[in-house]
Amino acid sequence: MISLQKVLDSVLCLAFPQPCHVCGGEVDGLSYGVSCSNCWAETRLFDSGTLTSCYKCSYFFGEGGESKRQFYCSFCSEDTFDLVRCVGLYEKALMKTVLHLKNVPFVPKYLQELIVKTFQLAPFEKVDLIVPVPISKVRLSERGFNQASLLAKPLSKMTKIKLDETALIRHIHTKRHSPGMDKKARQMSVKQAFSVASPEKVKGRNILLIDDVFTSGATASNCAIALKEKGALKVYVLAVARAFII
Ligand SMILES: [Zn+2]
Ligand SMILES: [Zn+2]
């Protein structure tokens, strides 16, 4: 059944067509955000079951993931987080949506639904609290919003799991990670960047961190160190896009 929202989205897109940030064609529904439905369909998502990835950190090995065997990469064994699940690979529609979200505080409905689906399929134990990966005060004042919070809000609303945007704080304004930085450099840049503002909120709880892109795991691992030092039990991560690099 076609929902009224979908009809409305299509009508609005006919009235105000905008080019797809991936292929330059027309976006055929507001719910798709900055990419057309074709480019979304071409973006590789983990729920397809056809991608082989690390069971712990979702490091992407390649296509053909029908096997039920659990694979582990050698990069995440020291990382403090417990499990990472991502909507899909950092490419095409997901990449353009994430990049757009850094400037425009809008999470398209289609992505909201994919986040919820990813959460539902993830083998997490009961999650008590959703915590967006914080940005520093400096960056917050530059950008005006934390994109991880925007991604976390609809998930919290739809799952009715409490959201806490202040439990974790980022007190060091680190340089943006560049593709040329290796894992060690990324780890050094975020080491001790995070602390827990309200330990009583995380003690004895399973925490789900939300982020836009998962790259080396250095940020998530340092968040997990801070949370576990204050008594958090499990620290899971849900990110929109999984970068290919380590
Ligand atoms: Zn397109
Ligand atoms: Zn791994």
Brief account:
This protein has 9 helices and 8 strands. The protein is of the alpha/beta class. A 4-stranded parallel β-sheet has the order 3-8-7-4.
Properties at a glance:
16% strand, 246 residues, globular, Rossmann fold, alpha/beta, two-stranded antiparallel ribbon, four-stranded parallel sheet
Account of the protein in words:
With about 250 residues, the protein is of the alpha/beta class. It has one domain (about 45-240): Rossmann fold, CATH 3.40.50. It is built from nine helices and eight strands. The protein has helices at about 5-15, 35-40, 90-100, 110-120, 135-145, 145-160, 185-190, 200, 220-230, and strands at about 50-55, 60-65, 85-90, 130, 170, 195, 205-215, 235-240. The chain has a four-stranded parallel sheet. Bound molecules: zinc ion (2 copies).
